[in-house]
Each structure stands twice: as C-alpha cells, then as structure tokens.
Design a protein that fits this description.
single chain, alpha/beta, Rossmann fold, Isoleucyl-tRNA Synthetase, Domain 1, 3 domains
Length: about 500
C-alpha cells in the first residue's frame, strides 16, 4: 500500500476480479480514482438501473465517511444503436434526442438523493480519445480493419480474456465478429472498436471523421478511453451493474490492458439486478417501472431509495409494492423520531443515563462496522433502528437525558449521511413528475389521489406554512372557530397538524 495510505483502512469491499473481500484505498495516497458505467440515454431509467446507481452512491458516501477523498467519473453513452435508431424515427439528431433523456436521468438522480460524480464524461465529447486508443491497439497488432472500414479487437490475442467473469472461452471462434451494441450476453467474439459510417448515421449526426475513417466508436471503447483519459491507465475501482460484467467489462479490460500493458482496474464492484414481485422485470410481465411511474402512482422518492438500499448490493432484492408501502412507513417513523428528539428540550440527567449511552455507543459502532463489512446496508439499518426503539421508549418513560439525545442525533446524522432520507422533499419531486406527465400528455397514467393532492388547486409547502401561521394567530386571538376551520381545511387536503410545546408541525398524510 502506498505511504499515504498507511493509516487504518476501514472499508472492506468484495472484488469481483479476485473473488475476495479486500480493503479499498487510494493507490496514489490522495483520492480514490473510480469509474462507474453510466446510462445509455435512449429512454427513461427504470428502477433496476437506479438500484445500481443508488448502491454506487452508498459506496461514495461510505468511502468518504471512512476518510477517503474521491475522484469519481461516470460516463454518459449518448451514441449507440438504440439512440441512432430512435433519433431517426423521431426526425432528430442524436444530440437533440439524447439530451432529453440525459436531463430526465439527472432529474431522477436528484429525486433519489444520488450524489453527482466529480466528473461526467459524455461519449460524443471524447471521440478523439477513443480514436487515439484504437490507434494504439492497431500499433500493438490487437486491432484490425475490415473492408467496409470498421475496426475490431482481436480477442484471441489477449490471453487474459475472461478473468473477470470467470468464463471458459477457450472454444470461441477465431475471427468471428459481433457488431451490434445490443448483443447476445454470451457472445465472445471479436468486438467492434470503430464502426464505419452508414447513411442513417451521417443523417443523424452520429459519425465523425478521424484517422480511422468516417464512423463512430463502439460501446466498449467509449468506457475504456474515458476512464483512461480522466483517471489514468490504472484506476482504483470500476463499478457497474452485474449485467455489464460480460462482455462489456471484460472487453474494457482486454482493450485497456492490451494498449497500456498495465492492470486496468484493481477493484471491481458489481451490483446485482432486482426482481419485481418475484419475477424478472420486463414490460411483457407488466412489472416494469421507471421512477416516474412510481411517483405518479403516489409512492415517495425517499421510500423508493430506502427500499432499494434495504438489501446489500451483492444480494438480489425482490421489489414489491407492499414492500414500498412498508418502506414509506419506515421513512415516516424516522422523520417523526428525528423531529421529536431534535425539537424537544431534554433534562440534563435521567435515571437510565449510563445504560442508554452505552446502547447508543454500541449502535453507532454496529452501524459503522456493518458499512465497513462490504457495505452491509441491511445490518447498518438494523443497528440504528435498535437504538431508535430504545431511545423512543426512554423518551416515553421520561428517561432520556440531553446527552443521550445529542448522541442519538449525532448517530442519526451519520445514518443520514449514507441513507439520505430525513430531509422531506417528496412533495417537490412528485409535483415535478406530475408537471412532466402533463407536458408529455400522460395525465391518464396519474393516480387520482396524486392529481387531487398535487394537481391544480393543491397546496404548496409555502401555502401550508401560511395557513399554519394564520391558525396560530387565530388561536392567540381566541378565534377558535377560524383555527378549527383551518385545521379542517388542511386535513381535507391531506395535511395533518401536530401541536407540541415547540410549536406546530405538519405533514402530508
């Protein structure tokens, strides 16, 4: 380990390449250099996509909590077969077409509380780096040009091919080629590095003139070139969904290491895909959900985040609507508890001070240990919920001291630095989804209760605050009829008021 990393390495992470749990550290002693495969922006992201990005978000947050600085690069694939085909059908350039879905992707990321990487790398803005990498491969004898002008990688000349996915590829056919970005997941054939321009690609502005000839990059070379450009020939960590392990990540390793003669990525992080209601998610199954689909059904972005993080990244999760309802209730309990402890004044001493402080300390240690043990989000959640139940009981019994309350809030802050669900912006994100549905003429897909609560005539947070303030003034002026009328009006619009010694709190039911 480099001299700059001689402090205790806390975060241990499973490495797909070695098949072992290993320490995560910055090889240069400064910042963890890691690359994550981002979206192909041809359509709206679905919850399977976002499970991966959510667990990468937890990885970011946990690494920072353990003391690591970050240099995280995520690509945007804004040119591929689907984008070209869909843009042509829409009568648009690929830039016009992909910009719409890239914007939607980042809106969805924000709704789910996913942090932005330090750098975003768009494929179409890095074509020279891709062409240069292919030229390096050609000089090494690893790339060849076909008669029609496309370039391919010679898999049989890279002896380590298959080391990530652990596939036995000894019998693959020499010289057979695969050209599509949409390929058979078992395909182990020479893959396209550069695709000669076709008339429809020129028409949709999906072709570039380079020393390789007019054309566009293949999908795999995009990620290798951008990772190496922004992070160097050897990086600390590469992340993505398990569906990308083969052949995409296998191909990245082959072309990167064939060009640089260095290990491409020391650590590989793969998130398992999910099931929906016990089945593989598919439109034909009727269980295919984008984030926007769920928001328009009345579910909350925070609950979706909390549910998708409830099972550790290396385990398959069965996403159900019942589970989403339970997750909504769990988030609500967290927020209610947070408000109770934060907004009340607690006595300096309590009968159960020492035992409760010890329980809180153990909960804090258990939370940290669970994260350090391969990002065990399930155990981390359980450690904190055990503390919350004990503290709630102590508060009910008058046994909660000011010091115990402060330490509980410190643990809650640490918990939320990872899970990020305590701040309530759910109404804002649902309103945004509703505005999108209206602009896209999709109001028929919106649940009636969402239209009632967030559509025309519904109350904004500022309007609710104003009515609450008016009610408080009415009570001070002993105008109880007006105060009761305001409470009733708010309740009819799904707003529940809670009077306490610290003032009035409200929440959407």
């Amino acid at each position: 380990m480099p001299r700059g990393n001689r402090r205790r390495v806390a975060l241990q992470l499973f490495n797909t390449l070695s098949g072992k749990i290993e320490p995560l550290f910055a090889s240069d002693g400064h910042a963890l250099r890691f690359y994550c495969c981002g979206p192909t922006v041809y359509d709206y992201g679905h919850i399977g996509n976002f499970r991966t990005f959510l667990h990468v978000d937890v990885l970011r947050r946990a690494a920072r909590l353990s003391g690591l600085a970050l240099h995280h690069v995520m690509n945007i694939t804004d040119v591929d077969d689907k984008i070209i085909r869909n843009a042509a059908a829409a009568g648009q350039s690929i830039g016009e077409y992909s910009a719409r879905f890239e914007r939607a992707f980042f809106e969805d990321m924000d709704a789910l509380g996913i942090e932005r990487p330090e750098e975003i790398a768009r494929a179409t803005q890095n074509i020279p780096a891709m062409a240069s990498l292919i030229e390096r491969l050609a000089a090494e004898g690893m790339a060849y040009k076909t008669e029609e002008g496309s370039w391919y990688f010679r898999i049989n000349r890279f002896p380590g091919y298959g080391k990530l996915s652990k596939k036995d590829l000894a019998g693959m056919e020499d010289g057979a080629r695969v050209d599509l970005d949409e390929y058979d997941k078992d395909a182990a054939r020479d893959f396209a590095l550069w695709k000669a321009a076709r008339p429809e690609e020129i028409a949709s502005q999906a072709a570039w003139d380079t020393a390789l000839g007019p054309g566009r990059p293949g999908w795999h070379i995009e990620c290798s070139a951008m990772a190496m450009k922004y992070l160097g020939d050897s990086i600390d960590l590469h992340a993505g969904g398990e569906d990308l392990m083969f052949p995409h990540h296998e191909n990245e390793i082959a072309q990167s290491e064939a060009a640089s003669h260095k290990p491409f990525a020391r650590h590989w992080f793969h998130v398992r895909f999910l099931l929906v209601e016990g089945r593989k998610m598919a439109k034909s199954e009727g269980n295919f959900f984008t984030l926007r689909d769920l928001l328009l059904k009345g579910y909350r972005a925070s609950a979706i985040r909390f549910l998708l993080l409830s099972v550790p990244y290396r385990h398959q999760i069965n996403f159900t609507l019942d589970g989403l309802t339970e997750s909504t209730n769990a988030v609500e309990r967290l927020r209610t508890f947070n408000g109770r402890i934060r907004n009340q004044t607690w006595p300096d001493e309590s009968p159960a001070k020492n035992s409760l402080l010890e329980l809180i300390r153990k909960g804090d240690a258990g939370f940290t240990a669970a994260l350090e043990d391969d990002l065990n989000t399930s155990e981390a959640r359980a450690a904190v919920f055990d503390v919350l139940r004990a503290v709630n009981t102590a508060a009910d019994q008058g046994n909660l001291s000011r010091l115990a309350a402060e330490q509980t809030l410190a643990l809650l802050d640490k918990f939320d630095s990872i899970f990020a669900v305590l701040e309530d912006r759910d109404a804002e994100h649902t309103r945004a989804a509703l505005a999108w549905a209206e602009a896209e003429n999709r109001l028929s897909q919106v649940a009636p209760e969402v239209l009632e609560r967030f559509g025309a005539g519904s109350l904004t947070d500022a309007e609710i605050d104003a009515l609450v303030a008016e009610r408080t003034r009415a009570k001070q002026q002993r105008n109880f009829a007006r105060a009761d009328a305001i409470r009733k009006e708010l309740l009819e619009k799904g707003i529940l008021l809670e009077d306490s010694r610290q003032g009035v709190r409200w929440k959407r039911t």
